[in-house]
Design goal:
The chain has two helices and three strands. By secondary structure, it is α+β, with helices and mostly antiparallel strands. A hairpin with a 4-residue loop joins strand 1 and strand 2.
Length: about 60
């Protein structure tokens, strides 16, 4: 699972099977969602998605 910031100001989260793009300000809510889903299901993919988003470098000021 990889997360990266795009030139258009969006964030792309992509795995082997799917990908999604969303606005930068949604990153915290997606991290919370993936952590909650991991807690509820134990599926490592959710934990991996949250970790990928957390590992994004800070936005340039």
């Amino acid at each position: 699972m990889r997360a990266k910031r795009l030139e258009n100001g969006r964030v792309r989260l992509a795995g082997k099977v799917w990908a999604d793009e969303f606005e930068e300000e949604r990153v915290p809510s997606w991290i919370a969602f993936y952590e909650r889903m991991f807690s509820n299901t134990g599926r490592v993919g959710y934990q991996t998605a949250a970790a990928a988003l957390k590992a994004l470098p800070p936005v340039d000021a």
